[in-house]
Amino acid sequence: MEANRIYNFNPGPAMLPLPVLKEAQAEFLNFRESGMSILEISHRAKQYDEIHNQTKADVKELMGLGDDYDVLFIQGGASLQFDMIPMNFASKEHPGSYVLSGSFASKAYKEAELLGVGEIAASSKDVNFRHIPTQEELKINPDAAYVHLCYNNTIYGTEYHYIPDTKGVPLFADMSSDMLSRPLDFKKFDFIYAGVQKNLGPAGVVLVVAKKSLIEKSRETLPTMLRYDTFYAKNSLYNTPPAFCIYMVGKVAAWIKAQGGLSVMAERNAKKAKIVYDAIDNSNGFYRGHADKDSRSLMNVTFRLPSEELEKKFAAEALENGLGGTKGHRSVGGMRTSIYNAMPYEGCEALADFMEKFRKANA
Ligand SMILES: *Cc1c(COP(=O)(O)O)cnc(C)c1O
């Protein structure tokens, strides 16, 4: 780890790969011989155009998707997608069908419900979202416009380990916190979106990767900026895009490619998660994981300690040891350590060592 930097376990905005930050720093004052920084250049300039289109191409290549999918860059966070999706696709006759697996999944449903076009396909709320609803638990409405999932539940620390069979109903997924963390059969999804500040870049843009047949036409009554076909027809350049964010996402995608792609990410992420979960499982009950084992997230590890006092002490002492952002979300309590693509193995090792020492000193 670089001098003066910590291992940053924050859930988002989150750690970015150090080589990416250094590259951005090195070319900051003179972006591609333009004599300007990326923050100052026109979004219609040739130098920017190359970045924009290369980023789209790299994301699609990493996901193994072909010409029937497009990548859009939209602002307003993943939260605006909670509104745009039902506005563009759902109706009373063809509602959006939501799997409630956590806090963001429930927020997405709430927006569809506000519009009078949402229904629930399954929920694990009764067990405090400790597990991902199984295929058997899903009630698929054949008339639904889509089934909406949150693929990784950032707050509860659970993640899908299967792709639901929706019996032909289009599959939509919020992958904000596990996008590009592992290879998946992405063709099984019709619409994927991610706020990039978790695993792919700085806050400010959402990546939508969706079937062109879905996004090339929007409901005629929608305002321009809420229509997917505006972003599709104009290559996400109808209005000024957040150029710096897209540039950073492009650098992260190129970094992932250079590391060997999604299978290498998956291998590393599994190894990283294992040492942290082992530290929980081998603690004689001092650390208690929130998620059921079969639903554990490889990105966000959530656990409790014997008391809230110890949890406060854990977060403070961890930071003194160069391990930042370990405090959990207020709705689950306890600790949450986010170990996205950019977290090196050494960071997880340092965390597991610290957990062991802390337990010995406080059990
Ligand atoms: C953080 C997060 C969101 C909210 O993203 P914003 O960009 O802040 O709107 C939605 N879904 C998931 C899974 C998240 O982790």
Which key terms come to mind for this protein?
Aspartate Aminotransferase, domain 2; seven-stranded mixed sheet
Order of helices and strands: EHHEHEHEEEEEEEHHHHEEHEEH
Q: Kindly report the CATH topology of the largest domain.
A: Aspartate Aminotransferase, domain 2
Rounded mean pLDDT is 97
Number of helices: 10
**Heterogens:** pyridoxal-5'-phosphate
Topology:
Layout: E1 7-8, H1 18-26, H2 46-63, E2 69-74, H3 77-89, E3 96-100, H4 103-114, E4 118-123, E5 146-150, E6 152-153, E7 158-159, E8 171-174, E9 191-195, E10 206-211, H5 212-215, H6 228-233, H7 243-259, H8 262-281, E11 288-289, E12 300-304, H9 308-320, E13 323-324, E14 335-338, H10 345-362
Parallel strand pairs: 1-13, 3-4, 3-5, 5-8, 8-9
Antiparallel strand pairs: 2-10, 6-7, 9-10, 11-12, 12-14
Helix pairs in contact: 1-7, 2-7, 3-4, 8-10
Bound molecules: pyridoxal-5'-phosphate.
Summarize the structure.
With 363 residues, the protein is α/β, with parallel strands linked by helices.
Give an overview of the whole structure.
- This protein has about 375 residues and is of the alpha/beta class.
- The chain has two domains: about 230 residues, Type I PLP-dependent aspartate aminotransferase-like (Major domain) (Aspartate Aminotransferase, domain 2), CATH 3.40.640; about 100 residues, Aspartate Aminotransferase, domain 1.
- Helices cover about 35% and strands about 15% of the residues.
- The strands form four sheets. The chain has a seven-stranded mixed β-sheet with strand order 2-10-9-8-5-3-4, sandwiched between helices.
- Strand 3, helix 4 and strand 4 form a beta-alpha-beta unit.
- Helix 2 crosses helix 7, helix 3 crosses helix 4 and helix 8 runs parallel beside helix 10.
- The longest helix is centred in the C-terminal third of the chain and has 20 residues.
- It is globular and about 65 Å long.
- The two termini are about 30 Å apart.
- The model has no long low-confidence stretch (mean pLDDT about 95).
- The site of pyridoxal-5'-phosphate (PLP) has 12 residues, from helix 3.
